Structure formats: structure tokens, C-alpha cells
Amino acid sequence: MSSGIVRTYHRENCNPWDCTKFCNEINGLRLHTEYFQNNGVKEGSFKMYHSNGHIYQEYNYINGKINGIAKFFNEAGKIIEEQFYTYGVLDKYIKYIYYEDGSLAETQEEIIDNKN
User: Fold this and answer.
1) pLDDT, tens digit, for every residue of 37-46?
2) What is the DSSP string of 29-65?
3) Could you tell me the pTM of the whole model?
């Protein structure tokens, strides 16, 4: 298995979830994901980007499991959700809802019962 920084790119104006369009070239392509892996296992910071270059998702891995706060952003760069993980288990999340003018309207929080 390999170790090191992994970057995937996609063409401008393509669906970033269409994996057939991913490649590891730079010319004419935009950065889609960036993370570190150790022997094929994700480790440390993981970032995924909107096609406009703003961060879409940002979270941390420990031994291949999400740990800590996972953040999700809209294309304008405003945070829309935070998820709180303990070694791959979702503990709670907070959703941020905005008015059309960009000001925060409300937050919705849910704590996840993981005892089952």
C-alpha cells in the first residue's frame, strides 16, 4: 500500500461525483479532494472542494476513521453543517440555515444516541 498525499482533480463544469472524469492531472482540471494516507489508510486532514475552489467538506481521520468535527460548507464558503465524531461514530450534528441575505436564520442540533 502507498503512503503520502493524495489529490484528485475534475474537469471544470463536470459532475464531481462522476468518478469516470477524475484523474490525477493538473492541466485544465480543478482540485476535488486532498488528503494524506498511510499504507492506504486515510490519516489526518481531508478536504473536498466545490468547483469554484471553496472548501466543501473538511474533516480529520485517525486510522481511517473520521474523528473530531466534520465541517460542510456551501459554495459561498458559509458553514452549513457540523458533525461531531468519535473514532468513526457520529455523536451529534448541527445544521445552519441562512436567510437569502446570507445572515444566519437558525441552527438545528441533534445528539445521536449511540448506546443501542
Assistant:
1) 888 888 999 9
2) EEEEEEEEEETTEEEEEEEEE-TTSSEEEEEEEETTE
3) 0.77
